[in-house]
Amino acid sequence: MGNLCGCLAPKPVNKRKATKRLANANNTAATVSSNSSNRWTRIRSSRKEKFVDDALIQEQALAAAATIILQQQHNGSLPFDRSASLRYPNSKKNQLPRSSSSRARSLTDPLLQPQQLVNQDIKLDDLETSHFVLIHGGGFGAWCWYKTIALLEEGGFKVSAIDLTGSGIHTFDTNSITSLSQYVKPLNDFLEKLAEDEKVILVGHDFGGTCISHAMERFPSKISKAIFIAAAMLTNGQSTLDMFTKQAGSNDLMRQAQKFLYTNGNDHPPTAIDLDKSSLRDLLFNQSPAKDVALASVSMRPIPFAPVLEKLSLTDMKYGSVRRFYIETPEDNAISSTLQEGMINSSPPEQVFRVKGADHSPFFSKPQALHKLLVEISKIPST
Hints:
By secondary structure, this protein is of the alpha/beta class. The protein folds into 2 domains: about 50 residues; about 260 residues, Alpha/Beta hydrolase fold, catalytic domain (Rossmann fold, 3-Layer(aba) Sandwich), CATH 3.40.50.1820. It is built from 15 helices and 9 strands. β3, α7 and β4 form a beta-alpha-beta unit. The protein is globular, with a radius of gyration of 34 Å. The N terminus is likely disordered.
């Protein structure tokens, strides 16, 4: 009987199925509503983006028109010139620095002129000259200045890094160089071609100090300042060999690294000095990054011997008329601090600076600190 009543009784409502249908209905309605809302949002967003894009295009067009007007006013040239190094003659001269910000420029942001972007930190127009000429040391080439070149050019300075004869990518045979004037000819040619009223800041490293001294005697009116970086700063009648002889007995690293080359035969004087690659790190790059040591090991060339022997003829009227500055490198194993101070005391420059923690190659070991000093020296006014 109970079973019969159970069979005849109406079946209970399946609440789970009804709930599922109701949920599906609600979801469908929500989806329709969401899709409608999304379409409206996309339409509004599209309209907003179109408005911003149109405004930005209009602003860019105005900027382009302003640039064309400036070019016409300057006879077709841009209102400023960021010259690349001679080492990289094909670099883009007039390319502006790109902002590191990813934020889209607001329509209310001021429209900066190119020269404002370049000269935000330094007023280059206030300097006597903003053109640096970088001269490498013995065995080096213009390649060694790559960090300094980048930093100076980012600041808007004009930079020329020169390969001396038989150095860097200069094709002349180092062993065939017979005089200092032959070795520094690329520098002399460069200075000779400068405009009559144009001046530069000469920077010499290592043996490059002797080279810029030679140029200072020949072209004093074209040199605003001379900066010696761990460099040979000689006196009249002195040779670079004379300077190095003063520390010959106390510098075992230098003696171990040097290898004399005799291309004219062992019964003739050496033609060049080569440096043992395994000694480069300890002698020249004891504080420098490994990648720069590797670069130097495959790029350095022998040092011509004849220019090292040649005694300089320097006069107060010419060489002495150029303002000199010296940058010391206290961790230097090639030209010791004692030797650097001796040269400074023998022929005092206008000012002496020091790059703390720098080895013989501060353009590798302390590029930012070196850059800061170069810029600081460029801003020192005439006394």
